[in-house]
Each structure stands twice: as structure tokens, then as C-alpha cells.
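Q: Entry one of two.
A:
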Amino acid sequence: MHVTRLELRHVRRLQPTELHPAPGLNLITGPNGAGKTSLLEALHLLAYGRSFRGRVRDGLICTGAQALEVFAEWTENVNGRTRKAGLRHTGQQWEGRLDGQPVSQLGELCAALAAVTFEPGSHALVCGGGETRRRFVDWGLFHVEPEFFSLWRRYARALKQRNALLKSRNREVAQLDTWDFELADAGEPLGHYRQRYLEVLQTGLRAIAADFLPSLGAATLAYQPGWRREELSLSDALLLARDRDLATGFTSVGPHRGDWRVDYVERPGREVLSRGQAKLTALGCLLAQADDFASQRGEWPIILLDDLDSELDPAHQQRVLQHLLSSQAQIFLTGTEAPAKLEQLAATVARFHVEQGTVRPAQQGV
């Protein structure tokens, strides 16, 4: 898929903007603080329902404005179909449209437009909390496994109900048994989906990590289901944890406590990665996810690379771009200047320059 038109209003410091990106590499340059990242945030918002820099109400809406508005039009490469999506967000409430029709759930927009984003906070995928890693896996499954989203929603509803019952200190066995059954019935297959997905990604990650971080050896994705699955069914684990859960008021076992990690052969004992190694590992996971999306869906997600020149050294920047430019992906790349040897890597580059919140097409060398 590739975006053919992007319109923004009241997004951070950007002036009202209409952009017509190219299908391949789109380079967005400008000084720090000019608004380059805001363009990527707007696309990310349509694809994920949230910004990668925090909540919408925490500064994404331009000061003094009641709401931001984002509109995108794109072509699906697999069938040539043109699609349109729009989102108006006040920070508390939102309205969305997809192909001219109103949508009732943000998930409908997120299912239509797919984007994979690498930005300065992406190293949290490796060294941050488990929620970030669960979101990463669930995003991938949401797009490539049709049954996954309904299963995920079923589990989330059951978890919410069980936690509410626990907080009330209600010891009615029949009610707890009902929600334990529902959690186990949805949670067991949900965990298997996640494990199989990571097993598929591991093949792609190993190839990418061998190029990006050859000194670390082979990469392995190790899944942690959120309970001792090798010893207990989820139903038994919930029953054993019931007294503890009643005391604390929340469910302590299950896929919502699941996690995963990246191990390397040359990092015995799970030694801590350096910040640079963590960034490259996270990027490898994201690229492996994009590769898998392309193989499953027949087209690439949009690739958003924010501030790549400050996150990676020139050699790794070139490796990343070589990997992506050999695909059919549409790429949005921001930086204070063009990467070194860009003309040797890409035959055609659409260039845009951002200055004081205004976005304009740029000539080569600007």
C-alpha cells in the first residue's frame, strides 16, 4: 500500500498541510523542532489510533485548537483499490470515516491502514515493559490472522469482568468459575497464536540481525506465556491463583502477563544489550514484522522512520535503506539532512522540507 494524499490540520505546530507522497522513498528534512516528526505521527495515529509520543491530549493537538484532523488516501497494491480514511480527535472524543462511511471503532481504521514505525523511543521494544512487546505481537496478529482480534477482545472483556469481581472481594464461586472458564477458553489459543507468530518472526529476525549485529550471533525470540504453561493449564493456574488474586484485586496469571525477549548466542546469561544494540535489535524486530506482513498480505505496510540520522550511524542507515529499497514499501524518512550516499541507494527520492511548521516540496540538495 502507498499513501497518495495526506492532509493535516491542527497537528502540533504544523500549518494546515496537504502532501502528495511518492510510492517509494519520501525524504522529509528540516531543522530540529520544525515539525518533521508530526507528519509521521499523523500517519501513525491513523494506523494505530494513538501517537507514538504519548496520548493525543498531551500536546498532539495544536495549542488553541479544539481538535486535530487527519485525512489520508492510499492505494492497495495487491488489488489497486483506492481507500480513504479521516479522523477528527479532540483528545477525549473522536470521529472517524473510512471510505466515506462513519466508523464506530478505531480498530476499523487501524485494520485498513498498516504502518510500521521506528522512532527514538523504539528501543523500549527490547528494554522497556512487557506491554510494549505484547502490543507489537498483537498488532502483527491483528493484521495477518483474521480470527485473532475477536479472540483478543473476548479475552479482554473476560479479564475486565474478572478483575471487577476480584476488586469487589466477591467470593461467589460460581461467578469466579464462569470468568475463569471464559479466560481460559480464550487465553489458551491466544497464547498459542502469539507463540507461533514469534516463531515465524524469528526466521526473519535472524537474517536481519546477522546483517545488523553479526558479532552477537544467532537471535532467538523466547516467548513467556504469562503462567507456567509447561506445568499447568490456564484454567488450573487461575484456580491456584484465586486466593492471591482476591487479596490483591487483580488477575495475576494469563496472556495479559505474557512477554517475550530477544536472546543472542554470544550474549550468554541474557547480558544487557548496549543502547545501540537495543536500537538495532528493535529495528530488526520491526523490519521482520514488516517482512512477514508483506509475505502474508501480498503488499508492504507503510514504513515510518523518524530521525534515522540521529538514531543510527551512517553504515547502519545504509543497511536499513538497502533492505527497504529492495522491497515495494513506501518509506517516510525524516532527518535534519539526507543520509550519506542516498543517491547511490535510491534512483528516485521525493523530497520535502519543513520549516517553521510549513511543509513544501524540496529540490535535490535541500
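Q: Entry two of two.
A:
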Amino acid sequence: MNDLFSLKGKVAVVTGALGLLGRNHCTALSEAGAKVVVADTNEQKCSDFARDYLENGMGSYLNVTNKDSITELTRNILKKYGQIDVLVNNAAINDMFEDPKVATEQSKFENYPLELWQKSLDVNLTGIFLCSQVIGAQMVKQGAGSIINIASTYGITAPDQSLYKDQEGNQTFYKPPAYSVTKGGVIMLTKFLASYWGHARVRVNTLSPGGVQNAQNDFFIENYSKKTPLGRMANPTDYKGAIVFLASDASAYMTGANLVVDGGWTCW
């Protein structure tokens, strides 16, 4: 059983690697034995993280919206390691409205800025398209690989906007449309790629996480937890097992699937 989950001898790339979940994806893959490429927009921080927290890895700059950047990263990985076995498409934008005075009005669908919509499309969906196109093509040449696309429960169900009210019942902001739409697109892109590359033994699956506790106010955490059968938000480490499962031979007969790890959020 240990061999099924082992990633010894494998090379894994994680995009958006410096984010809350990205860091945990990296450490999970490393702990399972993989050489991990920490890829994000700050090369120095990526290199520092790889040095300080991973057994064997490297840090690299990556702009997921730029095909040349992805191609250069791929070339550098092949030069160093000779192969790429796992790609975790984790990079994403989750709109944050820093000024509470305008957040409610700006986040309304009727007022939602086109530039924010386009930016989310570029990173959350086109970024996965481009990374899969370049790195997936290398996996096809190798005759095997595992691509893991990170979606969300909001790619399956619409946001409950009542969660974003304060204790007085005032709407503090609305969860914008771009996040849900792009994450839903990620799930469909996964299915397309799984059917397209199945013959080449390149597996493509989605991981859909639930909400992660990360310094939200107590009122939000309590309300979110009430809507979750397990009665709590996720810890950042709750997805480490799922990532290793999807990356390893433990999921060898799994492709085109959406692995939902959400504490039961979507079951009612």
C-alpha cells in the first residue's frame, strides 16, 4: 500500500505554490517522495520555500497567463530533472475588495467590473489551459502523467450570498460571479483533457476543496460551519492526502473525475 502512494522518483510542478493551499500541496508531494517545483510570481520566495520546507525541490518564477513563461519553466525542469510527472494547476484569483466602503456595491453582479471578470478568466481558466497545453504535451511524450486541476465547491454550487452578511444582517459584499464561473470551467476542462489524453496514459482530475479557515471573522466561520455536515471549515492541511492520492498510482484508474473534499458542504 505504501508503494501505491509513493511519489519517489517523480517530479511534480505546483503553480500558485506560495498560496495557502499551494504551500501545503508542495509539502504533501515532497513528503510522499517527489521532487517539487515551487512555481509562482516571486522567484526568490519560491526558492526560499523550496530550500526551507522541501526535501528535494526548486523554486521558479511562473506567469501562468504567459505561454513563453510556461515553456521556459518546462525547459528548465527538463534540464534539471529530465521529466515532469505531476502538474498541480493551483494558481487562481479570488477577488478581494479591500475597501469595505465600496465592496458591497462593487461586488454586486450589476456593478462587477469587466476588468476583474477578465483577470479571473485569464488566471483561473486560461492559466490552466496554457499550463496543461505545454506541460501536458511533455507528459504525452513521456507516455504518462497526472494533472490535478484545483477547482472549488463554488464550481459545483452557486455561492450562498447570505454567508457574506454581518451580525446585523447587512451584506458586506457579494461573492463575485467570476470565481464560480471559472471554477466550473475548470471542471469541464478536466473532463475534456481526460478524454483527449486518456490514450497517452495522461490522467487529468479535479480536486474541489471546500472553504479553508484563514483568519475570517468568527461570525463567518460559525455560519459556514453550520452549513457543513462535519461542522467546521477545512484546515489548510486537510487536502494533503487528496493531492498525494491523485498524483500517485493509488488513483491509477481515475481520470476525468472531480474529487470533492468539502466536509460535506455540497451534499445538502
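A: Comment on entry two: The first strand starts at residue 11 and ends at 15. The chain has a mean pLDDT of 96.
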